[in-house]
């Protein structure tokens, strides 16, 4: 299971992490969906794939519609 921060859903892409990294010793890295999906190379990615955290097997449409700042996915070894 991986969840990874992204700016894909942020209208001010890059700004939030830029500010965070300017103020923090620990540097954060954001990745888009494709870059996050590469962590699953060679594994069997479970449905629904790499999706916003709230969209990974949500219990309702309301849950799925929640804003997200992270991609999420679950896989198994083949």
Q: What can you see in these coordinates?
A:
It is a single chain. By secondary structure, the protein is an alpha+beta fold. The protein is built from three helices and five strands. The protein has helices spanning 15-23, 33-37, 61-64, and strands at residues 2-5, 44-45, 51-52, 70-73, 75-76. The protein has a three-stranded antiparallel sheet with strand order 1-4-3. A two-stranded antiparallel ribbon has the order 2-5. The longest helix has 9 residues, at 15-23. The radius of gyration is 14 Å and the shape is flat. The mean pLDDT is 91.
Task: Provide a compact summary of the structure.
The protein is an alpha+beta fold.
Helix content: 10-25%
Strand order of the largest sheet: 1-4-3
Report the sheet-strand fraction. Answer: 15-25%
Number of strands: 5
Structural class: alpha+beta
- How far is the first residue's CA from the last residue's CA? 15 Å
Uncertain residue ranges: none
Largest sheet: 3 strands, antiparallel
Overall pLDDT level: 91
Q: What is the molecular shape? A: flat
Q: Keywords for this structure?
A:
single chain, 78 residues, alpha+beta, 18% strand
Explain the layout of strands and helices.
Layout: E1 2-5, H1 15-23, H2 33-37, E2 44-45, E3 51-52, H3 61-64, E4 70-73, E5 75-76
Antiparallel strand pairs: 1-4, 2-5, 3-4
